[in-house]
């Protein structure tokens, strides 16, 4: 059988990019939604926030990635060597020609998977500060309107209403029915929290003072809606204090850790509100009784004082006589005080007159004039002495300066010889050569000469 080669016109040649693009399109279309189980290996979480890892079993492996934009909504972050169950879709990374799975959902696999997811989310929210005691607010002691977020058909609502109706205070109860388990329950609870906050902000007439998040007991799966991150975040951003009352006393949810206060059961949550209101009401009654007693005592005291004044007015002649006696007594004391004050002022006047005699300004002025004349004479004498002393010193220094002056030396027949044109002083014969021009400075005038002959000390000897 003869082999017939394909003609060039019949070939379909693909570039590498075209081939990988086709493969990527086929992978994404064929494996758009799949579940895969395996072990996490080569886990990397760079600063970008994306999570890169390899999902493997005993025979094969595939690369996986959780993008940061989607990872925020996952309640579980995988760890190295952990068995996980992943839901996602396949794609092809064209730059390297590698296929990988893009993760949409991930959960631990095997026994205790839900508990592991619970602990992982708990640690994540703790790191974000949602459990910090400093951000929790006190439960209002006397709430006027309470919002109940719970199932409209559950026993939790009946337990709450049974206790809340016992209080004497006029509480306004606002029931916001939600699903408390199953698909979409967490979203409903989060929307209820946000909705009641928005309603409370709209007007003071719709203000809600306290939110109670309630549900009866159940398994971990039944209570899982209260372990979702979306519910925890909604509780954390609530402007209204939140009281969590989920499950029985032994049940603990993420909502309990984030809420401002946890009650073991819905009934206990209502008891807390009623007890706080009862304590406030009791304090009000106590203060009211104290106020009434104080008013009664004040009225009695005023009544007694009024009766005393009436008794005084019953005998006005005696009262006027008492006032006359009082006026006479005050007049005597006034005369005595005035006499003492007059004597003291006279004594001070005599003392001041004596002082003024010693401080006569004319005498002080004459003394100052005499002192000024004396100081003027002293200043004139000291000035004359100083001028004479300075003049003698100047004459002495002029004599010394004249002795040391070069002109005085030249006057005695000496001269100064300099080389021309450097004007360097000539101190010995060897400093010049024959025919050099020299300048001789005399006491009066200068001479320009030419060296015709010189004699050194060696020549003289």
UniProtKB/TrEMBL annotation:
GO terms for biological process: DNA catabolic process. GO terms for molecular function: exodeoxyribonuclease VII activity; nucleic acid binding. It catalyses: Exonucleolytic cleavage in either 5'- to 3'- or 3'- to 5'-direction to yield nucleoside 5'-phosphates. Keywords: Cytoplasm, Exonuclease, Hydrolase, Nuclease. Its EC number is 3.1.11.6. GO terms for cellular component: cytoplasm; exodeoxyribonuclease VII complex. This is Exodeoxyribonuclease 7 large subunit. It comes from Candidatus Manganitrophus noduliformans. The gene is xseA.
């Amino acid at each position: 059988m003869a082999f017939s080669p394909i003609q060039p016109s019949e070939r379909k040649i693909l570039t590498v990019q075209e081939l990988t693009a086709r493969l990527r399109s086929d992978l994404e279309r064929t494996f758009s939604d799949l579940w895969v189980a395996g072990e996490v290996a080569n886990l990397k979480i760079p600063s970008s926030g994306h999570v890169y890892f390899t999902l493997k079993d005993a025979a094969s492996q595939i690369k996986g990635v959780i993008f940061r934009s989607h990872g925020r909504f996952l309640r579980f972050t995988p760890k190295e060597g952990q068995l996980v169950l992943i839901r996602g879709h396949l794609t092809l990374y064209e730059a390297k020609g590698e296929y990988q799975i893009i993760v949409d959902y991930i959960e631990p696999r095997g026994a205790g998977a839900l508990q592991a997811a619970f602990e992982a989310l708990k640690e994540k929210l703790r790191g974000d500060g949602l459990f910090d005691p400093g951000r929790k607010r006190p439960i209002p002691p006397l709430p006027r309107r309470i919002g109940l977020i719970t199932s409209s058909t559950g026993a939790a609502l009946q337990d709450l209403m049974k206790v809340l109706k016992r209080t004497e205070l006029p509480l306004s109860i606002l029931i916001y029915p939600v699903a408390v388990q199953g698909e979409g329950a967490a979203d409903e609870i989060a929307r209820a929290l946000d909705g009641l906050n928005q309603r409370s902000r709209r007007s003071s007439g719709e203000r809600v003072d306290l939110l109670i998040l309630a549900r009866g007991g159940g398994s971990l799966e039944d209570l899982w809606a209260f372990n979702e991150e979306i519910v925890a975040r909604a509780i954390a951003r609530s402007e209204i204090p939140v009281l969590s009352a989920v499950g029985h006393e032994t049940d603990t949810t993420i909502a309990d850790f984030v809420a401002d206060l946890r009650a073991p059961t819905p009934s206990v949550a209502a008891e807390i509100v009623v007890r706080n209101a009862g304590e406030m009401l009791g304090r009000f009654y106590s203060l009211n009784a104290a106020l009434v007693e104080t008013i009664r005592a004040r009225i009695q005291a005023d009544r007694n004082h009024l009766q005393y004044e009436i008794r005084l007015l019953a005998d006005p002649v005696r009262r006027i006589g008492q006032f006359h006696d009082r006026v006479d007594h005050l007049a005597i004391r006034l005369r005595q005080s005035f006499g003492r004050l007059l004597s003291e002022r006279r004594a001070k006047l005599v003392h001041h007159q004596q002082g003024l005699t010693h401080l006569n300004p004319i005498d002080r002025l004459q003394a100052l004039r005499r002192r000024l004349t004396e100081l003027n004479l002293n200043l004139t004498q000291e000035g004359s002495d100083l001028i004479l002393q300075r003049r003698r010193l100047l004459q002495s220094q002029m004599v010394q300066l004249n002795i040391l002056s070069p002109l005085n030396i030249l006057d005695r027949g000496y001269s100064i010889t300099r080389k021309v044109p450097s004007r360097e002083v000539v101190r010995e014969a060897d400093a010049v050569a024959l025919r050099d021009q020299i300048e001789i400075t005399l006491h009066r005038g200068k001479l320009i000469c030419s060296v015709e002959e010189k004699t050194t000390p060696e020549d003289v000897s």
